[in-house]
Design brief:
This protein has one domain: Ribosomal Protein L24e, Chain: T, CATH 2.30.170.40. The protein is elongated, with a radius of gyration of 16 Å. By secondary structure, it is mainly beta. The two termini are 23 Å apart.
Length: 63
């Protein structure tokens, strides 16, 4: 499974790590994903969701 949020499609972003001497090295930023049980189409399923979507209430959790 990819490192992508199932709700907002937030994924990995790439860029450069820049040192004090302005040397550039490639690096990536990964989203803060949690594996949660959510109600999808009326039935509970496990999906990967970013913490921003969890906090904002975009996901209905299955208890």
């Amino acid at each position: 499974m990819a490192k992508v949020c199932a709700v907002c499609n937030k994924g990995v972003v790439s860029g450069h790590r820049v040192s004090h001497a302005v040397n550039h090295n490639k690096r990536t930023w990964a989203p803060n994903l949690r594996r949660v049980k959510a109600i999808i189409d009326g039935s509970p399923r496990r999906i990967k969701v970013c913490t921003r979507c969890l906090r904002s209430g975009k996901v209905q959790r299955a208890l």
